[in-house]
């Protein structure tokens, strides 16, 4: 096991695969890519229009209200991170929340049980990506869980529609309204990054081509992709499976060789 070794390249060879890190090359007959669905914090390009004096933080770097400069904050993004950060900040300062796409809200607990208990019992975590229901859920988008608009309104959060422009210290919203900002928290999600994978046939328009994690390239598998097979595929606590693959640690050791520079 190698810690702190980012794989920067993956190529196919006659014998299998070659993986490169900063100082080593690995060869392997089989590769499982389990790099997670949340690799690159995404900030919309219009953020570049904001003046350097505006404090900008992506939700992945947000730690606490105290870590931000004092004063009003604009939170951009109406997913779980945006709602939760807005709720926390609203306890001590004025907050506006810009929501580009509104997701349905669900309570964290229902009739004394955690929401995921219900979702599991109702079979919703096992709904497959290709099923009719699975496709509908994917098209509809995520749920906001445990916080909702009414609660935030009570806490004093002011809602704004989608942010459409940013120039200097002024941001403009889809309804034509605008305001000056000092601090912006971008709760605008993540993108996956598979640019280091240089194996023909694996990526199409940046997306992994696979069937339940099995790619068309023999020996190359993915694990933990969003909706890889079911809703639970990229969540903690649901069984991670690759279709039709049985790899034991011994088999992985036999199939892997490490080359260190002389
Ligand atoms: C804000 C947020 C909140 C979440 N809340 C929940 C929740 O409440 N419940 C829940 O079930 N799930 C939640 N999730 C999802 C949860 O994080 C994922 O389900 C889980 O982390 C996926 O595990 P993973 O091992 O597949 O990927 P990760 O945990 O993302 O691990 C991937 C690993 O791969 C490494 N890596 C990436 N690229 C390379 C490379 N090129 N070379 C080498 N290593 C690399 C990364 O450094 C990382 O260590 C949340 C995610 C986010 C972003």
Any guess at the CATH architecture of the largest domain? 3-Layer(bba) Sandwich
Fraction of residues in helix:
10-25%
DSSP strand (E) fraction?
A: 25-35%
Q: Which residues form runs of ≥5 with pLDDT under 50?
A: none
| Annotation field: number of helices | 5
GO molecular function: flavin adenine dinucleotide binding; monooxygenase activity
Protein name: Putative flavoprotein involved in K+ transport
Organism: Geodermatophilus obscurus
InterPro entries: Auxin_biosynth/cation_transpt (IPR050982), FAD/NAD-bd_sf (IPR036188)
Describe it for me?
One of its GO terms (molecular function) is flavin adenine dinucleotide binding. It comes from Geodermatophilus obscurus. This is Putative flavoprotein involved in K+ transport. It holds the Pfam family Pyr_redox_3. By secondary structure, the chain is α/β, with parallel strands linked by helices. The protein has two domains: 9-39 and 192-259, no CATH class; 41-103 and 142-190, FAD/NAD(P)-binding domain, CATH 3.50.50.60. It is 15% helix and 27% strand. The strands form eight sheets. It has a five-stranded mixed sheet. The protein has a five-stranded parallel sheet with strand order 6-17-7-8-13, covered by helices on one side.
Brief characterization of the structure:
The chain has helices at residues 80-89, 115-121, 132-140, 149-154, 249-255, and strands at 9-12, 17-20, 25-28, 31-33, 40-41, 55-58, 73-76, 95-98, 105-106, 109-110, 113-114, 144-145, 158-160, 163-167, 170-173, 178-180, 183-186, 190-191, 197-198, 203-204, 207-208, 220-222, 256-259.
